[in-house]
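Sharing in case it's useful to others searching the archive later.

Someone asked me privately for the predicted structure of ABHEA protein, so I'm posting the question and my answer publicly. Question first, with the sequence:
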Amino acid sequence: PGYGDSPPAKTVATQRGRVAFLERVMQQLGLRRPVLVSPSMSGRFALPFLLARGEQLAGFVAIAPVGARDHAAAQYSEVQTPTLILYGDRDTGLGQQSLQSLRHLPRHRVVVLPGAGHACYIDKPEDFHRALLGFLGELQ
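And my answer, the predicted structure tokens:
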């Protein structure tokens, strides 16, 4: 809500509101301990949720998410959610920027996809899916 062609929504204007929004989505879908996959702009929702409610997730997949620099290293260091940090080596902006913050997550692994840009899942779908499925297979 509030991005792309969707109308603005006051309920998601704050980080607290975005966390509450994702909690409602999970409740309405009946999801228990899902893996949250966060490419690009979804980081504005997913990262605050990870920091506030990471224990509700079985895992987190960060694909060059927006907003990683909005949070302190100390906040990330407290999160125990297994995390896959994934980006393309041609994404020299957001991919590397988000890594600088997300590397403070204690249970993370980094996969850099050679020859892929910001939308690495489009540029290198087979490599992306191999990394994603490998990570998912390691979760309990």
